[in-house]
Fold:
Amino acid sequence: MRSWRIALPLRCLLAWAGAALLAAAIVPATSTSSRAQVEPKRVLILHSFGLRFKPWTERTQVIRNEMSRRKSLDFHDHSLVSARLAGDKSEGPFVDYLQTLYEDRPPDLIIAIGAPAANFVQKYRPRLFPGTPMVFTAVQQMRVERDKLTENDTVVAAADDFLPLFENILRVLPLTKTIAIVSGASPNERFWQGVLKRDLEALAGRVDIKWLNERSFEDILTETAKLPPSTAIFFQLMNVDAAGVVFEGGTALTRLAATANRPVFTYDDAFFGDGILGGPMASVDDLSKKAAEVALRILDGEKPGDIKTPPTGLASPKFDWRPMQRFGISESDLPPGSTIFFKPPSPWETYRWSILAVCTVLLLQGGLITLLVIERQRRHSAEIESRARMAELAHVNRFATAGEMAASIAHEINQPLGSILNNGETAKIILGTRAPDPAITEIVDDIVRDNLRATEIISRLRSFMKRAPSERKDIDLNDIIADTVKFLSPEARSRATALRSKLNGAPLQISGDPIQLQQVFSNLILNGLDATSDTAQAQKAVTVTTTRNGNFAEISVADTGPGVSDEAAKKVFDPFYSTKDHGMGMGLSIVRTIVEAHHGQIEVDKRNGVNGAVFRVKLPLA
Structure:
């Protein structure tokens, strides 16, 4: 019994120990598996010439961008320098280097960029990770040895179609007789020279081909700077010239386009924008995005041998506006469906919204101006009608004034008429005698003088009451004032008021209507006479003074009446306002209208230190 009790704990301890050892063995394995799952897949990119050689650099960049946009990857770049040199013996050691570098962890995918890289990989495929999937791209389909492809290989290639590139040259430049082909001297470039020579046999008799591959690039620049007008330039490649000089990026093309005296064409739009005129070209985006899509499908587990991608042909023609302008090529010379790049936008494209905004503002302004013009015409018509009504009212006012003065006028006329009658009767008596008195001549002269006086009084009254259209002419204000004072003198005498005038020594020439201005001054004088009539002063007077004040003639009418209060001075020129019990309140309103129509001013003020008011009128001198 005791032995059984001891054995049970030992058995439990053994079970626990086994479980602990099993857990210790499982945890590291799980951790290693987790680390393997989170590590990004490794992509080895093998370049044909180097990391900075067109057109492969642009294609590689598009592939990397497209793949990185959708998946986290670890890219490794290696360059096949042997493609630049003929007979290079470094390929074997380079393969050994790659094997050693990735011995512990081979890449998950290999992407060969360009024909030299594709040929290198196929040559050493048994040694270059034969179990690793491979994508051949940025290569013409003729450069791929399809009989050497394995189930782990797939190709995303461009179609071999060069003849349309040269047909485009002849389409855009129909007078072309010679095409100069600029090309380098590396093995890859020499291969394509052979391909082009074979394809261009179809143009025999239509155009001559001039090869510039056996010269240094400096000699090529000299040659292309003085080509005949009937020549075009085709830029194939310039990675290594005949002198062994290596050209990275687009430096060679940039210098060529800057110095060449004829348009430059090429086969790949990776060079577009560096001075190339344009045409149908292989598209960097089309081929590279297809390659990126195929590479991602392989990384997701799809078998490379099952992915068949048709070759990518030439893209739609596109042209650079700048070389077109330089060489005088119009849009009508381009193939149908062409797209023009780098063309400065038209003012409408650049400032569309600004132009629309300006047009909108102009339309609104035009509408507003039209409305203002219509309103101005209506206002002008209203002003004309108002002036006509005011003239009629002034005429009525003159009739009323004349009615008020009728008794004085009758008195003034009766005196000369009575004198005429007496003199006439006396003349009859004297003439009836046998011995006429010599004084008859004096009597007759008195008759004539009194008759003229009566005629003058009546003439002034008729002129004052005359209704005539407004007529501007040059007049002397002194004459107007003198006539008005003479006309109103009888009225002043009937009211026992002295009417005086102090005229400026020199003429005061203005442009105005004499009838209307006489209305102004007669109203002001009569108002002064009315004001003095209400006072009990012994000496009542109305004084009219004319002076020159700068470019204005100033006429003041001062009276000795009670004056005008400050409150009344603010409203005295308003229509229908009057300080008289019997007044209509239109006289001074008419006066102001006439003065302002003559571009003048009128104001009323108190006399300094003396009773009465002063009305001042300013009118511009002619």
In short: The first strand starts at residue 41 and ends at 47. Residues 38-158 form a domain with the Rossmann fold fold (CATH 3.40.50.2300). The chain is about 50% helix and 15% strand. The radius of gyration is 58 Å.
